[in-house]
Amino acid sequence: MANVTLKKIAETLGISTATASKALKDYADISNETKRKVRELAQQLNYKPNSFAQSLRNQESKIIGLIAPQIVHHFFANIIKGVIDAAEAKGYLVIILQSGESYETEKKQLQLLLEKNVDGILISLSDRTVNYKHVADIIKEGIPVVLYDKISKLLDCSKVIIDDRKAAYNATKYLIETGCKNIAHIRGPLKPQTTIDRFLGYKKALSDHGLDFKDQLVFETKNLSFEDGYEIADRILATSDPIDGVFAFTDLLATGALIRFNEKGLKIPEDISIIGFSNWFLTKITTPSLSTVNQPGYEMGQKAFQLLLKEIRNKRENKESTKEIVEIPTTIIPRNSTKPRLITEKTNN
What we know:
By secondary structure, this protein is of the alpha/beta class. 42% of the residues lie in helices and 14% in strands.
């Protein structure tokens, strides 16, 4: 006989999976009648998740779920390490899932985490997620949820972010301060908030420094990959307006472009400067080394868990949780793919 899932119990009783999960955990906001029905059916169907007995005793499983768009991505790997280190210190197990930037996979994984009776969920939304009902429904059910990195302003929950607009502004401003006048931007489709904000930061920096924004200097890519950066480099070099600076949405895109510029015989940064975003380990070993925006993933992971733990404890004690938005600061890391910043300030005599 196939294993009985929490979803099956919920469907049989005509309730949500989150309600069934909370009933098994003896949450105070679930009626005694609902708890009785869920437990009786669970016993009848021989439903026994690994943490079932402990969950009933302690009203918690000591397990949290984490969904990341990509696990092998250097930035998300750092976030995961930050979460695991912080969680283990508090006695929590972390279930790690990868959405692969898929909306449908993301929905299935959230359902899976609920069936595992997790105490809370950390999630960075996929690039293809444009409908947020699956997350909103979980929040409405009272399951602690914290968004990190790729978020939606439409979801009422705690979030850990960087100021993408400010970071992109500073990266573009840095290129301008090194003498660049014609700066291209490589970005993804304008769907995730991060892509929108970095694009807007780029545009604002140009405007604030008296440079015209030109549509033809914005190059869109679907995959944000090394290969896309490599291919876009040829399109950059084919423009009629000579480009002397490039701000790329990710370090992978920047690295692909940098390699292609090298192959075409350009001198970097003398002929063209380039700056990436995230501070991957590879930025130190490219030739020349790649200037970038440091995006502190480990700190984001630790803070995201701390927010989630706070909400889990408040839920257990029937306390109201205040939704928080925590911004982690970013910095520019100058390396050899950009020229030194020009001295623009006047010295007082």
